[in-house]
Amino acid sequence: MLDQDEARRITQKVLSVSGADQTEAVLLAEDTCLTRFASSRIHQNVAERNAQLRVRAVSGKKVGVASTNSLSDDSIVDVTHSALQMARLQPDNPDFRSLPEPQPLPTVSAFADPTAQHTAQQRAQAVGVICRLAAEQSLVASGAFTTSVLHVVVANSLGVFAYAPSTFGDLTTVIMSEDSSGYASASAVDVCAIDAESLAKEAVNKALESRNPIAVEAGDYTVILEENAVGTLLTYLSYLGFGALALQEGRSFMAGQLGQPIVGSNVSIWDDGLDSSGLAVPFDFEGVAKQRVDLIRKGVANAVVYDSYTAAREGKESTGHALPAPNTYGPLPGNLFMQTGTSAKSDMLRSVERGLWVTRFHYVNPLHPLKTVLTGMTRDGTFLIENGTITRGVKNLRFTQNVLQALGRVRMIGRQSKLGRSFFGGIRVPALLIDGFTFTGVTEF
Question: Any idea what DSSP says for residue 161?
């Protein structure tokens, strides 16, 4: 694993050999271990160690980036020179001001020794529990168990040096019968917080309860969306409009809406990289300290996230949300949270006369980004609710839904939240009860 002294040596080597006006070195070093299982047996067990060094060189207002995954001295020199050569070939960027200056960085808790030291045998034991509980019910188990250690290092010629180690564990499983399936997952900084037996029971129960599914007609339904389904919707929402570049280019649903209500007043969404209940990280990929940004506050569009480039355009300060350069997305939230409510899922269930219980979504795609219209499929545990009770499994449906409109019809919010992965980091959200959620198609399975 990469320690701080070695990280400093590598990045300082870049800075010492660069002939650019300004230089930035971003070093990402990751050790990832993965155990995959299918047909109730392990079929893949791999470990990967990799590092990527990205150099951003500035010549006047020209910016170039080059990268390598070789950390020999010769490769460091070569990639640094390549970045400057690329910069000199670029047109001027009139909006570029400067790389960030150094600033005090917060400390966060994001590293757990049990995760860093987790072995293939320990992952196999957890998988064995899942496969055994599935086999006891004549079901078939599949899934994956991942543990990783990541070191993020940012240094630049203005004096920035930022170093942060972190760990992550993730276990997912799908339990299947001939005509049904059930899903469960858990993510944590400390792998000891992942309970394989609890996940297995959850997925097994869903597979059993959804056997012999019935078809229901497409239409508008009251839905209970479990945390995985809510997390998917919010991940796409953040990608579509919570970044400053999208707002500045007029392709964000937040454009012209700041200060206006856009969802229900019971909905608050924010990004906070310093909250240890998420996947905390103290700084972004420019070495700028993370700030909490309240994106939607009590239903009102409140703010977007910035990196140094988009902030300079408006004379503002970066909120610490830069992605690695070069980056066409602009800044994006990487540590999303949604405010919990006061309801247990059992309370939500009892309040529904007729509706659907949705475990998760997949194959989700944007149809109209400005209107936040998404389409996708239900999967691995979709149930009919009648008179406050889950009565049958139902065949999967396609949804086509304006997400902001859905968040404007949230009737109940779960009192507990769950951590998961988003496109660019972590997301912690509760379950939601939403009225009038639109399903536009049905399937045969």
Answer: E
The pairing of strands 389-393 and 335-338 is unpaired
Residue among 351, 366, 350, 360 at smallest CA distance from 431: 360
Low-confidence ranges of the chain (pLDDT < 70): none
297: helix, strand or coil: strand
Q: Residue 386 and residue 353: Cα distance in Å, rounded?
A: 5
Q: Note if the pTM is more than 0.90.
A: yes
Nearest to 166 by CA among 278, 321, 68: 278
Predicted pLDDT at 41 = 97
Residue type, 371: K
Parallel, antiparallel, or unpaired for β 140-156 and 219-225?
unpaired
Q: What angle do CA 126, 132, 137 make, to 5 degrees?
A: 140
> What is the per-residue pLDDT for 423?
82
- Tally DSSP H helices, then E strands, for the chain: 10, 17
Check residue 222 and give its pLDDT: 98
How far apart are alpha carbons 125 and 118 in whole angstroms?
11
DSSP string covering 369-394: GGGTEEEEEEEEEEEEEETTEEEEEB
Q: How confident is the model at residue 424, as a pLDDT?
A: 82
Are the beta carbons of 53 and 21 closer than 8 angstroms? no
Do 360 and 229 touch, CB atoms closer than 8 A? Answer: yes
Measure the CA–CA gap between 397 and 216, rounded to whole angstroms: 9
Query: Cα(111)–Cα(147) distance, rounded to whole angstroms?
Result: 12
Contacts of 58 (CB under 8 A, 6+ apart): 20, 21, 22, 23, 87, 96, 99
CA distance linking residue 159 with residue 228, whole number of Å? 41
The structure tokens 């009770």 sit at 389
For the chain, domains (ranges, CATH) are 4-197 (3.30.2290.10), 213-445 (no CATH)
> For residues 425 and 244, what is the distance between their CA atoms, to the nearest angstrom?
18
- End-to-end distance of the chain based on CA atoms, in angstroms? 46
Continuous H helices in 90-226: 113-116, 120-136, 196-209
Predicted pLDDT of residue 390: 98
Evaluate whether 201 touches 212 at the Cβ level (below 8 Å): no
Nearest Cα neighbor of 384 from 181, 210, 182 is 210
CA-to-CA separations, 252 to 134, 156, 179, 260, 412, in angstroms, rounded: 44, 31, 41, 14, 27
